[in-house]
Amino acid sequence: MKVLVVGANGQIGKHLVKFIQDEDNLDAKAMIRKKEQAAYFEDLGAEVAVVDLEDDIDTIAKAAEDVDAIVFTAGSGPKTGKDKTLMIDLDGAVKTIEAAKQANVKRYVMISSFDTSREAIQSAPEGFAPYVVAKHYADEWLTSTDLDYTIIHPGGLTNDPGKNQVELAEKVERGQVPREDIARVIVASLNNDSTIGKRFQVVTGNTAVEEAIKSI
Length: 216
Prior knowledge:
This protein has 216 residues and is of the alpha/beta class. The protein has helices at 11-22, 38-43, 57-63, 82-102, 118-123, 129-143, 179-190, 209-214, and strands at residues 2-6, 27-32, 47-50, 69-72, 107-111, 148-154, 156-158, 165-169, 176-178, 198-204, 207-208.
């Protein structure tokens, strides 16, 4: 299975491409914004597509023409302002979903926010609310399609070394989770069709990632 990793140069994306390349049955195609970012992924043996998420749907679809799955790990980051949150976390996600449909790619994994419910929007701090809104509507757009989607809702993301131990369910207590372990969860989701049509929250726990995914 060839996987287009959108946002490959991000912190989750870099872990994910490495883990995909370690799998016998998976190959990564890293979608990056700048050509100078390519060396890291080429050294891993991954294919590279230089595409900006602010490009049009046709450009994104061209990058997806030869893949079997898309993983959306891109994010505007907390310091870029509401405009980039709108352009990347909402419009970029929606364009990638539409590009998947155009390129006949059925499998789509979305990295969302921990809670994207209407209640979460209403209770979010002012600076964080636009991000939750963007993720809410991107998730809604995805679930309205006939794509084979999985939506992963990670807890507070850290750069701690991964433990390969998580708690994972439709609803879990809010907590933290290493980005490295979210990358492991993505790989396990791609390898397990039982995650299709599912959405779940993930925090650090006591169950090995592959076992946790089998329980979904």
